[in-house]
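Q: How would the C-alpha cells look for this protein?
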Amino acid sequence: MTELEKGPTGRRRGRGARERILSASQQLFREQGINRTGMDQLCAAAEVSKRTAYQHFTSKDELVAEYLRRFDPSVLSGVFDRTDLTPRERLLAAFDIPPTTPLCPYIAAAVELHDPQHPASQYARDYKQAVAARLADTAREAGATDPEQLGEQLALLIDGAAARTRVLNADAFPSAAAIAAVLIDNAIPATAGDDRRRPPKEVSS
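A: Here is the predicted structure in C-alpha cell form.
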C-alpha cells in the first residue's frame, strides 16, 4: 500500500496518520511521560503500523521534538496578543493558569531527556527563551526601566510556580502573580503612566 496503510487493528488508514501520531503523542507523553511511552504503544493509540510511523518520523527523538513544537508555536499568543489588556495586565495574565494544567511540557521533556543536545531539549530552550523575550517586550511596552531583567524574573516565576504546583498538588500561581505584581510595579517608574497604579487583576484559581 502507498497512500493507505493498515493499522494494527487491520483497518485501512488514510493520510491523517501523521496527525493521529502527533495527537497520540500529546496524550501519552503528557499522561505518562516520554520515556515510559514506547513506539508500540504510541502506534497502537494512533492506529498506525510502526512502518507508517517511521515514514513520518525517522526516530522517536524527531517525534518528541515535533510534539513540543506543536504545543504553542505562537508563544502564548493568547496572552501577549490581547488588545483588551494594558501591558501590565498582559504580564499578569501570563500567570492565569488553572492548577489542573499538567506540568509544562518543555520542563517535563528537559527533565526526562537528560541530554542538552537532544533536539527536543534544544527546542525547549528556544521556547523558554522566546517566552522571556515576549515578557521583556511587554515589560518594555509597560515602561520598565530594565525590561530584559524583568522578563527573566517573570519567566523564572512562571516556571517555578508550574513546578511547585505539580510537586505540592496545590495552586502556586496566585502567589506567583502577587510577587509578579510587586516586581512589575518596582520596575516601572511612577511617571510611566496610570497603568502602574492599577490594582492587579485577581488571578483565577
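The radius of gyration is 20 Å.

Strands lie at 5-6, 12-13.

Upvote if useful.
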